[in-house]
Structures are given as C-alpha cells and as structure tokens.
Amino acid sequence: MNQPILTDELIIDCKDIYLREYRLEDLEKLQEITWQPEVYEFLPGWNATIEERTLWLAEYEIPENQRFKQAVLAGGDIGDLYLRMAIVLKENDEFIGWCCSGIKDELPAPNREIMYGISKKFRNRGYTTQAVKGMAEYLFEHTNVEILNAIALIANQASNKVIQKCDFEPLTLIEIENESYNHYRLSKCQGHI
After folding, report:
1. Quick one: average pLDDT of 176-186?
2. What is the H or E stretch that residue 128 is in?
3. Beta-sheet strands, E only, within 92-168
C-alpha cells in the first residue's frame, strides 16, 4: 500500500484511491469542489475565483510540485516546499478532492501541516482517511519530515474524525483568525501509519 509509482508524475497508491500531482485539467473539478458550501464553510479562502485558481494552479502549485519532487530526488530535504495532490478514485480516475502538505505559519515549529478537502458526493467512504495516511507515509518515508500537524475547526466533526483515525495526537486548541481549531500532531517515530 501507499507505494509511489515510478513515472514522471508522483502517484501515491492507496486502497480505493490514489494521490497524484495536480494537473491543469483539474481546474474545473477543483473549482467546483471548492465552491461547495460544505467545503468552504470549513476551508475559508479556498473558494477563489476561476481566474485566481487558474493563476495559482499554473504559476505556483504545479511548478512547486516539480520543485518538491526535485528536492526528494536530491535527498529529501523539502524545506518549506508544498506538495499538492489530487485525490482520485481508482475505479474511474475521477478527481474527487485534494490532499496537500505545506508550512502553516500560524502553528508553532515544526509547522508542516497536512490538509485536505473532498467533494460532498464522496464523504463518509474512507477516502480522505486513505489520502491522509498515504500522504503522511510518503512524507515520512521519502523526505526529511519528522512531524506533521493537522488542524480542524471544532465544529468540523468529519475532519476531526479523519485526523483521529490517522493516529494524530490531540494537542490543544489553537486560535487562527478568530476561529478555534483543534490542533493535532503525528510524529514519524510513532509508527502508526
């Protein structure tokens, strides 16, 4: 499980889904999902305009994934680079969400976070849990990451449940932009993934 498939594109194989790098053709589906009220309620700022999303995808997110892969090949020191992956159903290659990792400035160091979002049509099927476990395992095995953080709004029961199923340890409440989040942490040495 969760072994990267060796192609030019980074793919992390999970049970029912796989994670792969963002592609330009993901734009429409990504935009559609980020505008679902069930998503932007818990991920403020993700519901950008199509113009903003196009710019981010083409100019920042896809190129940064390339730099991330180069850093992994050069020994695994990823520094503050982000990795943005699509969650894709194996059965039909449908883009159903995302799982990303990057630096969250509002968290205490080491402040690498894992974050995710999934279409309302594909919730409660274990796909997000598979994605988070796959991403964490990949980061711990192929990079210099030793600690991963996750945060979830207190009211976001589904997200808190995913984080707990992935063996993240609850730390404390953290306030970010006047919102209270549960803060969790997972260590490489925990070996639960």
Report:
1. 94
2. helix 127-142
3. 95-103, 112-118, 147-153
For 35-59, what is each residue's pLDDT tens digit? 888 877 777 667 788 899 999 999 9
The count of C-alpha atoms lying within 13 angstroms of the C-alpha of 185, restricted to the half-sphere facing its C-beta, is: 16
- CA proximity to 147, closest of 170, 168, 175: 168
Can you tell me whether residue 144 is helix, strand or coil? Answer: coil
The Cα–Cα gap between 153 and 156 comes to: 5
Model confidence at 7, pLDDT cuts 50, 70, 90, reads: low
- What's residue 42's pLDDT? 76
DSSP 62-112: HHHHHHHHHHHHTTS--TT--EEEEEEETTT--EEEEEEEEE-TTSPSS-E
Q: What is the residue extent of each domain of the chain? A: 4-190
CA–CA gap between residue 112 and residue 100 (Å, rounded): 10
Q: What is the pLDDT of residue 102?
A: 97
Q: How many CA atoms lie within 13 A of 184 on its CB side?
A: 21
Q: Looking at the structure, give the CATH architecture of the domain made up of residues 4-190.
A: 3-Layer(aba) Sandwich (3.40)
127 — pLDDT class (breaks 50, 70, 90) = very high
